[in-house]
Amino acid sequence: MAKKSVATLQTGSKRLTKAIKMVKSPKSGAYTFVEAIMDPTKVNDFLAKK
Asked: Which Pfam family is one of those matched by this entry (predicted)?
């Protein structure tokens, strides 16, 4: 049985969060998704940054 990808984010005593942000391309106007795995305390900074 396959494991969920979320289970791999919780390794040992470290706790990580996967953040997904939607960004609009200035050239085409299409939206793209930017993903990052980081410490939960840095998520708000990642989402506030353009």
From this structure: DUF4295
